[in-house]
Each structure stands twice: as structure tokens, then as C-alpha cells.
Amino acid sequence: MPTPHYGQPRYRTIANELRQRIEDGEIPPGALLPAESTLTSEFRVSRGTIRHAIAALRDAGLVATEHGRGTYAVAFVPPASQAETKEREVAADADLAILFKIEVGAALIEREVIVRRSGRAQEVVRTYRLPDCAL
Amino acid sequence: MPTPHYGQPRYRTIANELRQRIEDGEIPPGALLPAESTLTSEFRVSRGTIRHAIAALRDAGLVATEHGRGTYAVAFVPPASQAETKEREVAADADLAILFKIEVGAALIEREVIVRRSGRAQEVVRTYRLPDCAL
DNA sequence: AGAAATTTGTCCGTATGTATC
DNA sequence: AGATACATACGGACAAATTTC
After folding, report:
1. pLDDT tier at B118 (50, 70, 90 boundaries)?
2. Is residue A134 part of a domain?
3. Are residues A68 and A87 in the same domain?
4. Which of A100, B52, B79, B107 has its CA 20 to 30 A from that of A38?
5. Residue B1 has pLDDT above 50, yes or no
6. Closest to B128 (Cα-Cα) out of B89, B94, B101, B102
7. Looking at the domain assignment, is residue A5 inside a domain?
8. How many C-beta atoms lie closer than 10 Å to residue A101's C-beta?
9. CA dist., res. A98 & res. A95, Å (int)
10. Contact at 8 Å (CB) between B33 and B71?
């Protein structure tokens, strides 16, 4: 296979996959990600592509890397109370469309964090980003 | 030559050199940097190393790159990521009404944080809470 | 303490895809 | 359409930091 990168480049696909594992708790905060060599085997891509994907996660602040040690998921501080997180794809409303410079109804990724205290929501945080964001 | 990178790595040396040219006005704001191929010849390094150096400058907010065009020095200081915050009262939609255990249309305080990067929104965070909440 | 194995960091050369001029 | 320029991807080699034995 030469190097066709139709649509989404591979490093971005891999970055999203790894991000998903972190957000799903499959790779808990502080835990090491698989080594680059391992990821190379798993995704069947060159090491450079794996490093590119990890660099994207690092830029997004999701992971940190140390020289002879490895790359680990960064621990984020949970907001004291219980928080539940959902992520879904939504259509951009008029306001968001302007901000992101996209068309109304275009796809956006919404991440919703609900902070509850004794059943009732205390705070609801909705974060929007572009689907093809480097993250 | 194999790969001796004693002391400072080459891509960093090159990044510093280019930064110097920008700060000295040799490459004025808005002007294009030499093409990657040109820099490859000038510094006698591979294109990957040049790209690494330019990526460092980009992360620092000193330059911007456009696909088939080139890399140019940015006009002003790194607006790296500028956040603006607005706060307003909104009516609860169906989802929020359930979460907060209030009626649809009841008042909620919405705080919107827009993280921009060179004009376009990179991330939009909307936080909802009850009007009579502290903070 | 020291050697080996593991893992990330740097660099090269090449090939091909894609956007702009 | 052609030339130019950046983007993605491969594979190989060696350096440097860390961990393990």
C-alpha cells in the first residue's frame, strides 16, 4: 500500500481512537499508553505515523510523554461531586455555525458533563468542537 | 552522516535561526518563509527536519502555514488561543429542564466560553447553572 | 554497580497525495 | 495543464533516557 490518505489521514484516525480509549476509562489517568512499537503492530502503520498521532494528543493536553519511559494519560481533576460524561454528534445551531464558520446543521461533537448533587444537576457543561479536530 | 545530535538537536537550531530572522525583521510580518525545499538545501538537512523546525515555530505562534501556499510570519504577537466569556440568561430546553428538575422555559444562567484560534472558534464551552446558585 | 532490554528522540531518504499558483 | 509547495506515510538507522535483571 503506497500512501493514499483519502478523507481522514491515518494519524488522525489513530489519535481519535486513542482519545476514545482514554475518555472511556480504558486507559485511566496516569496509566501508560501502549509503547510506540506496540501501537505500530496494532494499527499496522509506521512508527512515524504513531508518533504523529501521539503528538496531536499531546498538543491537546490529553497525554504527556517522558523520554525513556513512555506516554501516559494526563490526570484531570474530577469536579468533586459525581460527574457523568456523554458524547454525541449534534447539528450546529445558528450561533455555533457562526463561531465555527460552518453551515447550520453541520455536524459538531458535543461533550456533556453533568455535575449532580443529590440527584439534581448542579452544573451542566457542554463542550463543542469540530468532528475533524486534531484532539 | 549518520545522526549525531550532540547538544541541541538540529531542528531546534534551525527553528532558532528562523526565529531570529523573523525578530530581526529579515522576514517581516506577513512575508513568506523560504520553501521547505529551499531550506533543505540551505541547511543541508532532510525535509523532515525542516518540517520539525517549522512545526515548533507554528506551535509557538510565530508562523502560520497554508497548504499549497507556504509558511509566513504572523502579523502580530501570538494570539495563541484567546478566550472570550459571555454570560446571559436563557430558557431551559427539554434536556436541561429534566436535569435541573425545573420546567421547560424556566430561566438558567448560561456562561459561554469561546476559545478562538486565528479568528475561528476552536472550542465552545457552555456551562449552565441555576440562577440562584452561588459563584 | 553494571549490563541488557525497552522506549522515546532525532535524522535520513524516498514516494505519493493534495492544494495552490 | 504544468509547476510549485505543503501533507502524509514508509522504512531504516542511531542516540539518549529509563527500567529491568
Report:
1. low
2. no
3. no
4. B52
5. no
6. B89
7. no
8. 10
9. 5
10. yes
Which residues in chain A touch residue B100, judged by CB atoms under 8 angstroms apart? 120-121, 124
Q: Give the tens place of pLDDT for each residue, A82-119.
A: 567 787 889 999 888 888 888 888 888 888 877 765 56
pLDDT at residue A135, as a whole number: 58
Q: Which residues contact A59 (CB under 8 A, 6 or more apart)?
A: A134, B59
- With cell 446571559, the residue in question is B88
pTM, 2 dp: 0.67
Q: Which of A123, A127, A128 sits opposite B129 (nearest CB)?
A: A123
Q: Which residue has the cell 538545501?
A: B41
- In whole angstroms, give the CA distance from residue A4 to residue A9: 9
Residue B91 DSSP one-character state: E
Total tally of structural domains belonging to chain A: 2
Q: Is B124 a member of any domain? A: yes
Q: CATH no. for residue A34? A: 1.10.10.10
The Å distance, CA of A38 to C1' of D17, is: 19
pLDDT digits (tens, 9 = 90+) for B84-111: 778 788 999 988 888 878 888 888 878 8
Same domain, B118 and B96: yes
B127/A123 CB distance under 8 A? yes
Provide the 10 A C-beta neighbour count for residue A43: 17
The per-residue pLDDT for range A16-46, each reduced to its tens digit, is 999 999 988 899 989 999 999 999 999 999 9
- Asked if residue B34 is part of any domain, the answer here is yes
Residue with cell 506551535: B59
Question: A128 and B127 in contact by Cβ < 8 A?
Answer: no
Spanning CA of A115 to C1' of C18, the rounded length in angstroms is: 44
Question: What are the helix (H) ranges across B1-135?
Answer: 10-23, 36-43, 47-59, 94-100
* B104: containing domain: 81-129
Q: Please report where in the chains the cell 481519535 appears, as a residue.
A: A16
